[in-house]
Amino acid sequence: MKIIFGYLLAFALWGSTTFVYGQTATTLAAGNWGTAANWSTGSVPTSTTPVIVNNAMTLNQNITIQAKYIFNANSSGSQNLNMSSDSLIINANVSFNSAGNNLSNGVILVKSGFTFTIGSIGTGGTLQVIIEPGATMIVNGSINNNGGTFQVDGTLNVTGSYSAANSSANVTGSGTFTTTGGMNSMNGGTIFGNPNQSCSSNCDGSSLCGNTVSITPASSAVCAGSNASFSSSSSLTPASYIWQSSTTNGSFTTIAGASTNAYSAALSAATYYRLQVVTSGCTTSTAPVQITVNPLPAVPTAPGAGRCGNGTVTLTASGSSANYNWYSDALAANFLITNANYTTPALTTSTDYYVYAINGTTNCKSALVMVTATVTPLPAAPSASDVSRCGAGSVTLNATGSAGSYNWYSDALGANLLSSGRSYSPSISSNSGYYVS
C-alpha cells in the first residue's frame, strides 16, 4: 500500500511504517498558528514538519516538535510545548505561557539578544538547552530535570524551583542561573560543576556553597599591552583559586599558574575574567568581569631640526591623531609641553628631546621617540686686509682665518653674492667696499 499526500510519503512494508519529512512550512502572514491559510504548505504543520516562523504568530494550540523549528519573529500564546527530537531555534522573543511543558529530547538554542519564556517544564532523555551569552530564558514555574543539560552562558531565571533527579541532569556554562524557589541537585546532578547542592529559596547557582565571592579590577579598561589587575573578596580558608578567561563570555579557559586570590596579566584584546574558589569540595564562581582594551596611538614621526649657531630650535611631531607630549628626558619625567611643535630654549649645543602621542580620552600612550635639536657652531670670522692700487684696474682681496668656504658680497647684509673662494679680484675705478663671510 502506498499513499501520497502532498510531499508527505508514508508506506507500510512487512508490518513497519517509515515517515519521510515533508517540505518546510513557512509562515505567510501574522496570525493564529492553527490557521491553515497562514502557512506556505496550505495546512497547519504537524510535529514532523520543519517550520520557519517569519511572522508574529499567536500560539493558539499545543505544539509538538519532532523536526527543526526556527522562530525568527516574536510569537506567544497560552499553550504547551512538547519536544521529543530535533531542534528548536529561538531567534526572536517567544513565549509558551502554559504549564505542563514536556521537553524530553533534542536541542533548544536561545540566540543572543532574545528571550524565551515558558511555563513549568519537565525534562528527560538527552535534552540540551543552550542559552547564548546575551540571551535569556524565563521559566514561569518550576523545572523538574529528569535528564538533560542546561548550558547557561546567558541568563536562566526560574520563578519556581529547580530539581535535578539524577546525575545526567546538569546545569553548565558561565552565565546567571537563579530561582525564586529552591534549587536542588542532591541526586547527583551538578550546577555549575557542583554536585549534591541545595538551597531553599531565592537561590543563585553561582553561590550554592553559601559563599559570596566577587572580583574587582583595578580598572575596567587598560591600554594595549598594559596589565589588567584583579583582587578578590575571598578570605576563605583553606581554599583553592582558579582564574579563568574568555574572549566571548561563553566558554571559559583556566589560566595556567593563576592560583591565588589576585591576578594580573598584560592584555591585547578585550577579555572576560572570573574566579572560581573551591573550598570543602564546593566551587563558588564569581560573576564574569570584562576588561576592555584601548588601542595605542600611532608612534609619532619627529625627524628633528637644527640651526647654525646658538639659539632656539623648533621641533615638530606628526603622524598621529592624538596629542603630543614633549619631555626633556628619556624617562618622560620632566614634562615640557603638549603640542605638535616644541620650541627649545636658546641652545649652545645639540640636545635630545623626547615625544610620544597620547590619547586624551583613554590616556593611552605610544612609544617614546627621541628627537634631536642640532646646533652647528658658526665658523670663525675671516680676516681680510684692505688693498689699494694706483688708477683704475683690478685688485685681489684675500681672506684667511677659517677652515670653511668664503663668500664675497657687495653689501653688509650679504644679499648680493659676488663670488665664492678664498680670493676675489674685482675691477675698480674708485674706492669700493666689499664684505666676506
Give a verbal description of the structure.
The chain is mainly β and 437 residues long. It has no helices and 52 strands. It is 0% helix and 47% strand. The chain has a 15-stranded mixed sheet that branches. A 10-stranded mixed sheet has the order 4-6-9-12-15-17-19-22-25-26, with no helix packed on it. Strands 30, 32, 33, 35, 36 and 37 form a 6-stranded mixed sheet that branches. A hairpin with a 2-residue loop joins strand 1 and strand 2. It starts with a strand and ends with a strand.
If you compute it from the alpha carbons, what radius of gyration comes out, rounded to the nearest whole angstrom? Answer: 41 Å
Number of domains: 4
The count of strands amounts to: 52
The coarse overall form would be elongated
Class derived from helix and strand content: mainly beta
Question: For the report, how would you describe the main beta sheet?
Answer: 15 strands, mixed
Would you tell me the overall average pLDDT?
Answer: 88
**Poorly predicted runs of 5 or more residues:** 1-21
The end-to-end distance, rounded to whole angstroms, is: 119 Å
Share of helical residues? under 10%
Put simply, the count of helices is 0
Strand content: over 45%
